[in-house]
Amino acid sequence: xxxxxxxxxxxxxxxxxxxxxxxxxxxxxxxxxxxxxxxxxxxxxxxxxxxxxxxxxxxxxxxxxxxxxxxxxxxxxxxxxxxxxxxxxxxxxxxxxxxx
Length: 100
Hints:
This protein has one domain (9-82). The chain has helices spanning 18-27, 51-59, and strands at residues 9-15, 33-37, 43-49, 68-74, 80-82. The chain is built from 2 helices and 5 strands; from the N terminus they run βαββαββ. It is of the alpha+beta class. Helix content is 19%, strand content 29%.
């Protein structure tokens, strides 16, 4: 049975302001930061990270309103910016039932 080849994806985050950059710098090692050529031909300052880190940053676990872009590099391709919409999960409120 043939096996599927896995394409590894490298995740990057691009801070859009100095406050976000500072928070990311405290969370990640400086060796994860670098200037990388992207698919549109521009070089950007990106931080190599994990999807878990992006999720924490997006949920506001590290700061109130982070401003950043997410980039993904799969295989030998140049990184591409990911556009995604995040929605917080709605919680259902259950009221106690009055029993008579």
